Amino acid sequence: MAGAISSLGSRKTGTAHAATSEAPWVRVVLISIALTFLALFLFLPLVVVFKEAFAKGIDVYLASVSEPAAAHAIKLTLIAAAIAVPCNVIFGLAAAWAIAKFDFRGKQFVITLIDLPFAVSPVIAGLIYMLLFGRQGFFGPWLGEHDIQIMFAVPGIVLATVFITFPFVARELIPLMQEQGKEQEEAAITLGASGWKMFWRVTLPSVKWALRYGMILCNARAMGEFGAVSVVSGKIREQTNTMPLHIEILYNEYQFAAAFAVASLLALLALVTLVLKSLLEWKAAREHELAVRAASAQ
């Protein structure tokens, strides 16, 4: 009887193993398809961008990225990202904390609103801001009376960038905070910690890796945003042009070497973002491994 049960168990184990494994040729085919796709649609375009950027020599490249219009576009892109990322960090932390730690009516509606920029086209978002803050928009007459310009100026670019990027931090934090629960915060409050001390000593350290990861994604999206910014900026050279808009203008003017030179800077920023993301993932995995080892040793 025992032998029959053992045989049945072995048969089940073998069946389960066969169901979760695949033949070597299947693995090779799948890996080949993935690598071919990445080479064609990711690696090859990057190579072409850098090849075309340096096609007319290093002097043309340096002149293209340092001329006043390009320098202003780079500066404005960095300013928009520098404002949008902190705004989204504050909003993401507040929204994730409220959604993960409290129950309230309309929670699912708030989560849906956070996902809205993923569903709405950036061009539509830009048009909405135009209808609100444009000269003929809802707030246009009041803004005109007080000599405040939002559209076709830096404030409009910042508003559009913040709207497009605000889900990135919140969406990284919400699932993690929901999984962690609120027992640690409740324990800290029970032991006499104030609200701020609980946040700085308990909540923030437990989500620091997800927060940094969300900030990197948010920054990358902010620097590469095109659709919404193109609507609200007016594409005024040396005033409201960001790097993606400047690249489009150069390309339409048949200044291909200059367009690819500025594009290579954006590509370089994207590569730096990927390296930072990989480093964060490695450090988070390393920290988790050390914590597991320390817990096992106790």
Question: How would you describe this protein?
Answer:
The protein contains 16 helices and no strands. The chain has helices at residues 2-20, 24-53, 58-66, 68-101, 107-114, 116-119, 122-133, 140-145, 154-165, 167-180, 183-190, 195-206, 208-224, 227-233, 243-252, 256-297. The chain is 82% helix and 0% strand. It is an all-alpha fold. The two termini are 42 Å apart. The model has no long low-confidence stretch (mean pLDDT 86). It is globular.
Could you give a short description of this structure?
The protein is an all-alpha fold and 298 residues long. It has helices at 2-20, 24-53, 58-66, 68-101, 107-114, 116-119, 122-133, 140-145, 154-165, 167-180, 183-190, 195-206, 208-224, 227-233, 243-252, 256-297.
Which short descriptors sum up this protein?
298 residues, mainly alpha, 82% helix, globular
Reconstruct the topology from this structure.
Blueprint: H1 2-20, H2 24-53, H3 58-66, H4 68-101, H5 107-114, H6 116-119, H7 122-133, H8 140-145, H9 154-165, H10 167-180, H11 183-190, H12 195-206, H13 208-224, H14 227-233, H15 243-252, H16 256-297
The largest β sheet comes out as: none
Distance between the termini: 42 Å
DSSP E strands, number: 0
Helix content bin: over 70%
Task: Please report which band the strand proportion falls in: under 5%, 5-15%, 15-25%, 25-35%, 35-45% or over 45%.
Answer: under 5%
Q: Quick one: overall form? A: globular
Individual helix count: 16
What number is the mean pLDDT? 86
Please trace the helix and strand order, writing H or E for each element: HHHHHHHHHHHHHHHH
**Class inferred from helices and paired strands:** mainly alpha
Spans where pLDDT lies below 50 across 5 or more residues: none
Radius of gyration: 25 Å
